[in-house]
């Protein structure tokens, strides 16, 4: 779409100096997120500073019926922040303040544009801990984390973003500013609007302030890296750890394709040619973690690890995690294209889904790289391809999703539906639950101005 | 209302032998829950055995426009299961099976009529742990816990019911059977219908099957009871523990009125005339909990405790918790009536809200008994009264709520809004959030047949 020309001066007045980006070259960074192969140009980008400004923009959008697409740092993996129908991108670059860290109550109040890693570091300096830890924590924003209900590395013990959001200030699509939740750990006053907004991918309301729960920083953290000759053996080790009595705070599985990619990307041989890697980490009182990490090391050895290394200090821990966090950028060096999926199965089914994905890859002659948060059953499956392989890859995706749903899993653990999985949502939730979701969307956004074209297929 | 006479045989056919209760005397137990002074007679009670039967009932209700009120064990405190507009009570007495305990994945699948304590005991026998622990756990049902998003004694560390619900089978008011969530710890496929239903007090859908997350049973549990000369000193000790580095799994505060009531009810002097009691408990690896409980004991002593007792074994722990769980029944022995509130404030404000409630009690010449989950800021404030004191008591309630909201708390931590707090919901959430909630209600229950008259005032 193209916005009416008269809107631009109105928006400039509303948002003040530097509040509107209109130069085509300057709009270009707002065309895409990290979803492969997806881009669409916004008509304008606006940079609000307050909830009132967001409300003014949404009232204009209601009046003139143009799409408004909220955007954090654009690190999303399913197209959530891409303006597929044009209109305005609402970027939170100017709403990036940590407003308060309430130490006695262990809460933080932030604007949506705060980088997740910045909050983690700030609270850590005060002996506090913000557990959700998406792999992109150095870049992604808390507003984006809330829109997608981001998970990450520590969900196996600590849960996901949803579990740390106590309250929100939200601007509804029709322009009302509401507050949800409170500064309390419990709250059952009416419907849980907080958690309806979390994970709604910017389609039900625009978050303008966030109250987050924090924890005391764990006294000690111990990390281990185990190497295996093949992925199936490693997956069985994951499954044993996941059903054991020790609850690790991270339990990651990395296959040979990902290992090779990272080793080439970082230009170092870390694994000596291993076929799979597990990284796991425990935290808690120092009196407990030493014994726990030794127990997990023993489980890995008994399950067939060819080598197990316990990090001796923070530096070694950081090196292990740097390896893990390098996977996403490294994969781009293997093949020009990828289709990245974000499947999740019951944790004990990890060996089964890994075996099934391998079968599917073989059947279609595709390279599928698997890695991710295996402790909570969440595996990032990346189909690496030349453009010519795409039709086969699409078939493989359908087969992978069918296997996941047979195992009572989900097609998206933490990346969201956006545009890239909208065609498959019905397969998971069924026509009637999808209809219920659409009735909720219509109830809160009757004019369909907020992030249209996401989650639901246009034709539906 | 009175149902059309023709409905009864239809329902009897649908629900089979023993599926419909129509004898007035047999309906009487379904007139009330644990909300003081509230009762209303249903026209009929139906006892479904399957989701399909629930759906059939809801389709009849849609066709004939009569209210349907889901009911667990009737232990609610805000009127959620009372049929205030007559119609059908849908009781889950015949849907009370634990369908599966999936040990490798640490999940349980249950019907809504399962008693919470029965599930706790069953999973404990397998080395697993279901943390949510309402004080009524021996009587209340998991379906009721989900309707109200029950909290309880362990929320300070483990969160509330919401945090353990992975998926639901739900019958929508219009009769469709949907499944939400999955058997996974992460799931972002579309809107979070699971957590919209949790805490919706049986107004948005009828839960017919529940997938719950379990944890490994903690290796050790240590409990302490500390006595104080007065409630304000005890409240300060709570606040110090709550903001400290050790996260107890329970942190309860009990005032002198509650202590006296329980001592008289149990016919034993436990406290030697103390003015307040704290019960706190830690769990985790045995190497850690011994030191942690000693540290908490020291915090209590430094904060002015007159005595601190560490439970030496399971028997002593059980005695301490029996004291705590006896408060609700014991209070009925003090005065004929009570108004029980369920306020929650940021944990560090517990001393302030306790002081404020005492002021309000004094000003109105009322006896207000305070106890509860002080570690998460959730205080049950019980105004004990003769009928003649009610007008003063109503004023006191308004003043207490105003104080709670000034402290950024909530008028209901875990009991829900139901009918008893519906008049105050707008005060907390504001007119526009209330309107958004009503739009969601209308979207899912267009005929207002499911638990009408709850959460929202009729006149609104």
How would you characterize this protein structure?
The structure is a homodimer of 460-residue chains. Helix content of chain A is 35%, strand content 21%. Chain A has 460 residues and is of the alpha+beta class. The first copy, chain A, has 4 domains: 7-91, Uridine Diphospho-n-acetylenolpyruvylglucosamine Reductase, domain 2, CATH 3.30.43.10; 98-216, Uridine Diphospho-n-acetylenolpyruvylglucosamine Reductase, domain 3 (2-Layer Sandwich); 220-328, Alpha-Beta Plaits; 335-424, Alpha-Beta Plaits (2-Layer Sandwich). In chain A, strand 8 and strand 9 (177-181) form a beta hairpin. In chain A, helix 1 (7-15) packs antiparallel against helix 3. The first copy, chain A, is globular. The two termini of chain A are 21 Å apart. Chains A and B meet through strand 9, helix 7, strand 11, helix 10 and helix 15 of A and strand 9, helix 7, strand 11, helix 10 and helix 15 of B.
Residue-averaged pLDDT of chain A: 96
The helix count of chain A comes to: 16
Summed up, the domain count of chain A is 4
- Total strand count of chain A, please? 18
The major pleated sheet of chain A works out as: 7 strands, antiparallel
Strand content of chain A: 15-25%
Q: Which fold does the CATH topology of the largest domain in chain A refer to?
A: Uridine Diphospho-n-acetylenolpyruvylglucosamine Reductase, domain 3
The CATH class of the largest domain in chain A is identified as Alpha Beta
Bulk shape of chain A: globular
Largest protein interface, residues of each chain: A-B, 95 and 96 residues
Which structural class do you get from the secondary structure elements of chain A?
alpha+beta
Cα gyration radius of chain A (Å): 22 Å
Oligomer: homodimer
In the CATH classification, which architecture of the largest domain in chain A applies? Answer: 2-Layer Sandwich
Query: Strand order, biggest sheet of chain A?
Result: 15-12-14-13-17-18-16
Low-confidence residue ranges of chain A: none
Fraction of residues in H or I helices of chain A: 25-40%
End-to-end CA span of chain A? 21 Å
């Amino acid at each position: 779409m193209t916005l009416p020309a008269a809107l631009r001066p109105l928006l400039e007045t509303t948002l003040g100096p530097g509040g509107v980006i209109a130069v085509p070259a300057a709009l270009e960074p707002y065309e895409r997120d990290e979803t492969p192969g997806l881009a669409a140009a916004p008509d304008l980008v606006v940079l609000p500073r307050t909830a009132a400004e967001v409300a003014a923009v949404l009232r204009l959008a209601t009046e003139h019926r143009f799409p408004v697409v909220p955007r954090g740092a654009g690190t999303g993996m399913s197209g959530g922040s891409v303006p597929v129908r044009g209109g305005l991108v609402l970027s939170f670059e100017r709403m990036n303040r940590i407003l308060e860290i309430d130490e006695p109550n262990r809460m933080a109040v932030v604007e949506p544009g705060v980088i997740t890693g910045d909050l983690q570091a700030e609270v850590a300096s005060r002996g506090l801990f913000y557990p959700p830890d998406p792999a992109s924590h150095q870049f992604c924003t808390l507003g984006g984390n809330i829109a997608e209900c981001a998970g990450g590395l520590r969900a196996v013990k600590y849960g996901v973003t949803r579990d740390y959001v106590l309250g929100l200030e939200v601007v509804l699509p029709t322009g009302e500013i509401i507050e949800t939740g409170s500064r309390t750990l419990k709250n059952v006053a009416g419907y849980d609007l907080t958690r309806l907004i979390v994970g709604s991918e910017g389609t039900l309301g625009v978050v303008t302030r966030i109250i987050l729960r924090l924890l005391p920083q764990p006294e000690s953290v111990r990390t281990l890296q185990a190497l295996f000759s093949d992925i199936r053996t490693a997956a069985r080790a994951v499954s044993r750890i996941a059903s054991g009595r020790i609850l690790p705070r991270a339990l990651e599985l990395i296959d040979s394709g990902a290992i090779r990619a990272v080793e080439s990307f970082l230009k170092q041989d870390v694994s000596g040619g291993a076929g799979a890697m597990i990284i796991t980490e425990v935290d808690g009182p120092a009196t407990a973690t030493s014994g726990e990490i030794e127990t997990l090391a023993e489980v890995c050895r008994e399950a067939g690890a060819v080598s197990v290394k316990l990090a001796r200090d923070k530096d070694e821990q950081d090196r292990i995690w740097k390896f893990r966090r390098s996977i996403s950028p490294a994969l781009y060096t293997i093949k020009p294209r990828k289709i990245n999926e974000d499947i999740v199965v019951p944790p004990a089914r990890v060996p089964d889904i890994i075996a099934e994905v391998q079968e599917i890859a073989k059947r279609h002659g595709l390279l599928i790289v698997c890695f991710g948060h295996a402790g909570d059953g969440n595996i990032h499956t990346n189909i690496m391809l030349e453009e010519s392989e795409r039709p086969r890859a699409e078939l493989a995706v359908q087969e992978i999703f069918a296997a996941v749903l047979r195992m009572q899993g989900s097609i998206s653990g933490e990346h969201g539906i956006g545009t890239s999985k909208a065609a498959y949502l019905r397969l998971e939730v069924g026509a009637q639950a999808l209809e219920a979701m659409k009735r909720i969307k219509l109830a809160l956004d009757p004019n369909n101005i907020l992030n249209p074209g996401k989650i639901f297929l246009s034709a539906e």
